[in-house]
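We store sequence with structure; for instance:
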Amino acid sequence: MSLTGQVNCRRAAYPAVIPPEIFDRVQDRFTERQKCLDPVAMLESLRRIHLEHGVITPALVAADPGLPSFGVVTRHFGGITGALYRLYADVQERARQGVIAKIKEYEGKVELHQDFLVINDRVTVLIQPAVPVLGFESPSWLFRPDQRPVVDITVGVPLADHEEGVILGYLVMPRLMMPTGWLRLSGSNAGLIDLHGYHGLEFLKEYVA
């Protein structure tokens, strides 16, 4: 007798505590829940929400049958910013490579070490592109200055959109001058732009000379 047959015989040998139809429904619910927790499936649902509404909010996540709770989503991806990065990683990586290529043209010696650049053996720079986040008074870009001692400067690169990834400028964030945590760049944050914003790579002269 096969193992399946043995199991079926054992099931039939005892009266069922839970009716089979209820057991089957619970199993179906369990399967659906596991699908909701799959990272690829979650990202696809988030992508659909973002493309339709231009923003990801707790209410929109709660209304989507393919997603778990907003708390589960944010914990899994490190917040909505982390989810957006995962959704548009290709656009941001393309922008990052473009900036690295420009810096190599601008400066003499540029070496890639781990995830940051070493320029002229003098300064280390981390390139951090970001797609716009909607849902505020104006589009915003979230950056997190790198606090590792080996990184001197985090260069935030705000992108115009989620498709072409046109670079709008550069936000220069020296580690010793920046607070920990996230920084939100927006049109209303003129002080941050005046102090640390640049249209091009001319800021490199100040740090690499």
About this structure: Residues 3-87 form one domain. The chain has two domains: 3-87, 89-208.
